[in-house]
Amino acid sequence: MNTTKEQWSSRFGFIMAAAGSAIGLGNLWKFPYVAGTNGGAVFLLLYIIFLMLLGIPILLSELAIGRSGGMNAIDSCKKINPKWGFAGAFGIAGAFGVMSSYCVVGGWVIRYIINSFANGGANMNAEYFSDFSSRGFEPILWTFIFMAATCFIVAGGVTKGIERVSSVLLPILIVFLIGIMIYSLTLPGALKGVKFFIVPDFAEIGGFSGFIRIALNAMGQVFFSLSLGMGTLITYGSYLPKNSKLVSSTVTIIAMDTAIALAAGFAILPAVFSFGLEPDGGFGLIFQTLPVVFSQMNGGTFVAAAFFLLVLFAALTSSISLLEVIVAWVCAKTKLTRTWAAVIVSVLIFAVGCFASLSVGAVPELSVGGMNLFEFFSFLSDKIIMPLGGFFICLLTGWVWGIPKAEEEISNSGAIRFRARKLFSATVRYIAPMLIAVIFITSIFGGK
Ligand code: PFF
């Protein structure tokens, strides 16, 4: 069933690929605007709590399931219990959904890089974004280019494609982002943005339903940002050698992802406040407000181009992980070669992505329940599929597989001490699934 077994060539390569999957548009594009529209620091506080209670146990469980199974997301879950393949299937369906809107945003980013170089970025104001994103054909062309680049890397394979590209792009991204953050923090009036980001204003929450809304958004963001509940980490875990250290890898990936999300908040929000712009601009935040900020800086053209290039790198290392989840499964189930599997899946995602792109402006009738298709896909994936996927991963690990067997895998059969065993057991069996269920149900009945 499985073709030749692929494996990461080094621990560094795996960490870069897994952290590269986690660090993406979720950190640079989504985190600052979701924090901005959800009360800033209150959101941040809940985000950190969910990171501990949900992020750590689920990420560790996914890596353990993947390494133990050594196969794609569905088959690795089935290996634990033949009836539980559906837990991995959430990931494959979700990856398809996320990818169809991810590739649209990836396309916008490419457009912004080119425009920064071509026109010095001076024309990239709020109108530019709405005008460009609502054109029919043009954004589709950029979506296509982004999808083709993703396909090309995944077709190259695990070590030669994914690992190699991530190992180069992620370190560049970190250096760029630190530079932009330092610049942003030294702008006049930057402190207001820092305060908004880290000092909670509980008066701004808006009662119980407001709190639930913020909690749901914070939970969705933890899932999205860490690539959880999507089979990505099961798939990446399946390429790990048996002697790899799962706990320390989990901690490193989470620490890197959080550091980058915080750095993005510190790079973007102070600049937004310093230039008197609004932090709650929604999903256009980095597209509508940042270019305005850049255009007022010395050397702004260069900074704008560098920033959007960085966003593109981050987006690519994540989109390849999404495509890989589906490709790994298709390769195992069919006789297709990796290249053909990557091409066919990419074409299908692109086809759905075209509708998502058109729904943003050109054809607003493409909507479901008051949301355009683009918003609907991301609602479905980060508020429904990912938390449900995570919920079932917890049940699978904590109850079906059982803590003793999971511990056996995590501790490399006792070769490494698993000190947090009790904590892991409590979170994966009780706290995480209950938390997901409570937030999920209250958001349906109590919040909005
Ligand atoms: N974690 C990515 C980001 O923050 O942009 C998005 C993502 C990648 C979500 C892979 C889910 C996934 F499986």
What's a quick, concise take on this entry?
This protein has 18 helices and two strands. By secondary structure, the chain is mostly helical.
What do you see in this structure?
It is a single chain. The chain is mainly α and 448 residues long. The protein has one domain: Amino acid/polyamine transporter I (Up-down Bundle). It contains 18 helices and two strands. It has helices spanning 11-22, 25-37, 41-69, 73-80, 85-119, 126-133, 137-155, 158-185, 190-198, 207-225, 232-237, 246-274, 285-288, 290-295, 300-333, 338-359, 373-410, 421-445; strands at 367-368, 371-372. The protein has a two-stranded antiparallel ribbon. A hairpin with a 2-residue loop joins strand 1 and strand 2. The chain is globular, with a radius of gyration of 21 Å. The model has no long low-confidence stretch (mean pLDDT 89). The structure holds 4-fluoro-L-phenylalanine. Residues 21-22, 24-27, 95, 98, 224-225, 227, 230, 232, 318, 321-322 line the site of 4-fluoro-L-phenylalanine.
